[in-house]
Amino acid sequence: MTFSDLGLRAELLSAVEAQGYTTPTPIQLKAIPAVLKGGDLLASAQTGTGKTAGFTLPMLQRLADGPRPGKRQVRALVLTPTRELAAQVGESVADYGRHLTLKSHVIFGGVGQQPQVDAIRPGLDVLVATPGRLLDLQQQKHVDLSKVEILVLDEADRMLDMGFIHDIKKILRVLPEKRQNLLFSATFSNEIQALANKLLDDPEMIEVARRNTTAELVDQAIYRVDREKKRELLAHLITEHDWHQVLVFTRTKHGANRLAEQLSKQEIPAMAIHGNKSQSARTKALAAFKTGDLQVLVATDIAARGLDIEELPHVVNFELPNVAEDYVHRIGRTGRAGSEGQAVSLVCVDEHGLLKGIERLIKRDLEKRIEPGFEPDPNAKPEPIENGRNRRGGGGGRGGNGQKRGDAGQNRGQGQRRGGEQPTATRRRRRGGGGRQQA
C-alpha cells in the first residue's frame, strides 16, 4: 500500500514524495485513516516508527478540508515534552504542509519569548509547543486556544514522567470542549490509560509494538568492564571499529561534559548536550552530529528525548539508566524505520542490579561480552551509584534498581523537568530571584 491509497490530498502526497517516502509504516497505515475519520485516537508506537507523520499528515488534511474562520486562529495544537521534539514536529508540519496555505509555529522554553509572541500575533493554524511555555504565553493572553479543533499529545508518557500533568490539565481547561483528541505514547501504562479515560471520547486504539519491547533491528550487547576503564573501552571501541555518529548516554550533565572533553582530548570529536546547555549550543551540536562532522554526541536522557537522526548506527549506554524503561527509549534512537543499528552498554559491577531490571523488563537476556585487555576484576566490590543530586544505591548487587520511578536521576515530576522547563509553581517561586532557572 502507498500513501496515495490512504486518501491524502495531492499537496500532501507531493510533500511526502519530496521527503523520499513511498511506503507508509505500520503506525501510519493505521493512524492516518483513523485521524481522517475525525474521532479520538489512542496510539502506542516506539520511537522511530514514523508516528509524527502518522498524525501530522491527516491533521493537515483535516485543517485544509475544513471551513476556515475569517481570522487565522490556532486550530490544531500539538504538545510535546521537550524542545528538541517540538522542533522536530514543527519541522515535519512545515515540510508536509509546504504546498498548503496553513501557517504554523513552534514555541518552547529556554529561549526568549518575545520572538515567539511576534510570530504568534499575526495568527496561526498549527501551534507546536511544550506545555510550560504555552501556559506562560496563554496566561499572558498572547495565545488564544478557544478555537482549537485538534489536540495532539505526543509522547504523553514522557510528559507524565516529567511532571507536566498539572500544566496539561490547565491547558485542557481553556480548550473548546468539542475537539478531536490524539494521544500518542510509547507504552500503554496505567497512568496513560487513566489520562486517556479522562481525555478521550470512545477512542480508536492502535498498538504497533508490544509494551516495553526493544526494536528488533537493534543488535544489543553488554560489555562487562570495571568502572575506571569505561572511558578507555569506549574510545577503544570507537577507534577499533571506526564508529561514526555515536550517541552516548550518561546519567548526569557533569558526566556528559567530562566524557565529551576526555574523548575530544583523544582526538575523537565529541560534544555534550543536556538541559544546562543553551538552546543555540544544543542546536549547533545536533546539527554537526547529523551531518557527520561530529563523531560523538554525549547526552543525558533529558536532552536526547525527541532526537530524530535518520539511520543512526550506534547508541552506547556509558552508564545504564536508573529506570529500566529508559533503556528502551535510549536504544530506540537506533534501528529506526527499517534501518539496522547497534546498541552497546558498558556495565560495571555497580550496575548488575540495573541490568537485571532491564532484562526482566524486555524479557530477554542480553549478550555479554568482554573485550580483550579490558577484563573486569572478578573481586571488584559494587559502590553506590551517583545520581548527580545525591548518592543512591542504584544496583549495588541488590538485584534491583533501588529506586522508585519518580526518584530517578533527574527527580522527574518533583521540581525539575526534562527539556529545560520547570513546573509552573516552581517557575513562579524562582522568578523573583535571578530570573528563571533551566533544568
UniProtKB/TrEMBL annotation:
Name the chemical reaction catalysed here.
Answer: ATP + H2O = ADP + phosphate + H(+)
Q: Per the record's keyword annotation, is Hydrolase included, yes or no?
A: yes
Which cellular compartments is it found in? Cytoplasm
> Where in the numbering of this chain does the DEAD-box RNA helicase Q domain appear?
1-29
Which residue intervals define the domain Helicase C-terminal in the entry? 217-378
Q: Which SUPFAM superfamilies does this chain map to?
A: P-loop containing nucleoside triphosphate hydrolases
Q: Which UniProt keywords apply?
A: ATP-binding, Cytoplasm, Helicase, Hydrolase, Nucleotide-binding, Ribosome biogenesis
Q: Where is this region: Disordered?
A: 369-439
Q: Which GO terms describe its cellular component?
A: cytosol
> MF terms per GO, please?
ATP binding; hydrolase activity; nucleic acid binding; RNA helicase activity
Task performed by this protein: DEAD-box RNA helicase involved in ribosome assembly. Has RNA-dependent ATPase activity and unwinds double-stranded RNA.
Name of the protein: ATP-dependent RNA helicase RhlE
